[in-house]
Structure formats: C-alpha cells, structure tokens
C-alpha cells in the first residue's frame, strides 16, 4: 500500500491544491511565499501532491516569543482526509522550524479546522474573528520545541 511522504518543495508545487481547497477564485500566492525563510512542504502520495503547508517567521499577534513562526496555507486533498497527511505535514514542519530556532508557532485557524490543530497540540488563544471572504477564525499557538 502507498504511504504518504513529506517533502520540502518550491511554492509552485502548492498552487494547485491551494487553488482547489483554500483560495477558490482568489490568487494562489500568499504574501511572503518567496521569502528565503519560507518553508513549503508537500505531502506526496504516489508522487501526487495531496497536502500542502507553509511555515514562515512572523511575529505572533497574541503572545510574546523570541522567534515565532506562522503556519499558513494548510490544506489536504478531500480524497485523503483523515489518514494522517495533515498531521504528518505539520509534524515535519515543527521539526524543521524547531531546528531553525522557533520557540512558538501560531496560525489563524478556520473555525472548522480548530479541532485538527487541537489534536496536534495547538491551543486557542483568541476570540473568534472574521477574515473575509472565508469567515470566522480563531488564533491558535503551540510552544516549541516539543519535548
Ligand atoms: C484541516 C485539514 C488540513 C485536516 O487534514 P487531514 O489530512 O484530514 O488531517 P489528519 O488526517 O492528519 O488528521 C489528524 C487528526 O485530526 C483529526 N481531524 C482532522 N480534521 C479535523 C477537523 N476539521 N476537526 C476535528 N478533527 C479533525 C483527525 O480525525 C485526526 O485525528 P486522530 O489523530 O485522532 O485520528 C483538512 O481537513 C483540510 O484541508 N480542510 C480544508 C482546508 C482547511 O480548513 N485548512 C486549514 C486552514 S486554517
């Protein structure tokens, strides 16, 4: 049986899944995509991209940290949901940014994805806020490195 593997990729490899799952009609590029510090990861199943995420150094809006990173552009293909691709992507990202010195990771979590981030260890630290056109989000953080 095929297994999902996680690889660091160029941002272009993330565009198709971003377009289908996250961006619906909006540009697939996210500010900061081309920054040298940005880490783009893909989950690959038989060389098909079935999951994507980006990590980027960015000040956390809710918590003081020496070196905070933001998680953005998180998506998995609806055909592979629930088999661990999302968790594997985030887990690999946390290893890589911990090595780079991150002491906190945060995200604007879509309301429907809060449970996913909680499973990984993130905690809600804000009230819900609107991010048009997507809708309600909650601020979530995770202290690093994980021990
Ligand atoms: C949220 C998302 C990335 C999860 O991806 P996934 O590949 O299904 O996640 P995994 O299979 O690795 O799930 C890991 C765990 O989280 C749980 N989980 C996954 N999505 C969840 C959700 N929306 N709510 C609650 N729990 C969830 C899984 O059941 C699994 O639990 P387990 O470890 O007890 O089995 C995916 O549903 C998605 O792309 N959603 C649409 C885009 C989106 O909302 N992105 C996040 C933007 S902030």
TrEMBL record:
SUPFAM superfamilies assigned: Acyl-CoA N-acyltransferases (Nat) (SSF55729)
- What Pfam families has UniProt attached to this entry? Acetyltransf_1 (PF00583)
UniProt superkingdom: Bacteria
**All residue ranges annotated as the N-acetyltransferase domain in the record:** 1-145
Q: What is this protein called?
A: GNAT family N-acetyltransferase
């Amino acid at each position: 049986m095929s297994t999902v593997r996680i690889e660091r990729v160029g941002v272009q490899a993330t565009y198709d899944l971003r377009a289908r799952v996250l961006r619906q009609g909006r540009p697939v590029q996210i500010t900061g995509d081309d920054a040298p510090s940005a880490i783009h990861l893909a989950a690959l199943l038989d060389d098909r991209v079935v999951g994507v995420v980006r990590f980027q150094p960015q000040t956390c809006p809710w918590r003081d940290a020496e070196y905070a990173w933001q998680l953005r552009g998180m998506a998995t293909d609806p055909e592979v949901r629930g088999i661990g691709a999302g968790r594997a992507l985030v887990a690999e990202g946390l290893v890589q940014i911990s090595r780079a010195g991150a002491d906190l990771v945060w995200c604007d979590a879509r309301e429907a994805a809060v449970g996913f981030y909680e499973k990984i260890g993130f905690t809600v630290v804000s009230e819900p806020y609107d991010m048009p056109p997507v809708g309600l989000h909650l601020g979530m953080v995770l202290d690093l490195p994980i021990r």
